[in-house]
Every structure is written in structure tokens, then in C-alpha cells.
Amino acid sequence: MYQQILVAVDGSETSTRAFEAALQLARDAGAKLQPLFVVDVPLLVYDVPGCDLPHARNALLEQGANVIENAVASMKRAGVQGTPRIIETALSGDDVAHCILRAANDFKADLVVTGTHGRRGFQRLVLGSVAECFLRIAQCAVLMIPTHSGKPVASGAQAAEPIKEPS
């Protein structure tokens, strides 16, 4: 079973689902968990006149600190040990996927959990996919958690009652 689990988090619904899955796995296996937030200031920001790079970076660092704080609180409630980490792409020169790889190697992760939006076709080509790029370069097991569970969501104020099978 896994003993060192790294999970990429960014505060999105997708990464929240990935974190919850990683937390459950870590609790069940008695593994250490490392939530990882990667600060990625896009290169575009460097070329935009009048753009306040330190402000953008500080905002992302603050967001990362909030995401990590929530992850640590959840880990404490679940009784899961581990040390969170925040790293920056600009300092290393790597893209997000390679930063995750470097962090996984540093942590000696035997499993990396990441969310995926499950984009296909043109959307994937245009937007790219950190999860797909990481999957291609990973050196350990990878668990990709989709944005949605695939279960139908009830519309309206209340969820529909489950259908019961006849006895």
C-alpha cells in the first residue's frame, strides 16, 4: 500500500475532490500526505506593461496559503500526518507539471493524486492539461480524479430520493 502520497491542490472543485480522495487513501493506509500548491505566474504577466508582478505573485501566494491551511485542518480532523508545501514555477523555471514531478521526487512519493477536468479535443489542445502532462512524465503511480463523479445531479432545491428495488 502507499506510504507517501502527494496531492496537487489549487482550491478548485476538481482539486478539492482530488484532495478528499488522497486524504481517504492516506487515512486508510496510514500514509503521510503532502498537499502541494504550485504558484504559477504566467509568463504573459511579465510582458504586460503596467502589470504589478509582485502583487500578482503575492495574491497567488496568499491563495496558496489559504488552500494549504484548509488542507492541514482537514488532515488534522482525519488524523493524517504530513507536511504541506508551496512551490513556484518562476523560481525553478519549470512548468506546473515539472514542479509537481520535482516535489514528488523530493517527497519520495509513491502515489500522486491530481484532479483532471477531462477536457477532450480542441479544448485540451488550446488549454493544455497539467494532469496529462504530469501523467506522461510521472515516475510513480498517479491517480487522476475527474471534476465530476459521473453521478446524476438532481435539479431543484432537494435531491431526489434514491430508487428502491422491489423486495
**Radius of gyration based on Cα positions:** 18 Å
Instruction: Give a short account of the largest sheet.
Output: 5 strands, parallel
- Overall outline: globular
CATH class: Alpha Beta
Q: Helix coverage percent of residues?
A: 40-55%
Order of helices and strands: EHEHHEHHEHHE
Annotation field: number of helices: 7
User: DSSP strand (E) fraction?
Assistant: 15-25%
Q: Terminal Cα separation, in Å?
A: 39 Å
Mean pLDDT: 81
Spatial sequence of strands, sheet with the most strands: 3-2-1-4-5
Number of domains: 1
The CATH superfamily name is: HUPs
Poorly predicted runs of 5 or more residues:
122-127, 151-167
Strand elements, count? 5
Describe, in short, the structure shown.
With 167 residues, the chain is α/β, with parallel strands linked by helices.
How does this structure look, described?
By secondary structure, the chain is α/β, with parallel strands linked by helices. It has one domain (4-44, 53-146): 3-Layer(aba) Sandwich (Rossmann fold). Helix content is 47%, strand content 17%. It contains seven helices and five strands; from the N terminus they run E-H-E-H-H-E-H-H-E-H-H-E. The protein has helices at 13-29, 43-47, 53-78, 89-92, 96-107, 121-127, 130-137, and strands at 4-8, 32-39, 85-88, 111-116, 141-146. A five-stranded parallel sheet has the order 3-2-1-4-5, with helices on both faces. The longest helix has 26 residues, at 53-78. The termini are far apart. Residues 1-146 form the UspA domain. It comes from Paraburkholderia lacunae. This is Universal stress protein UspA.
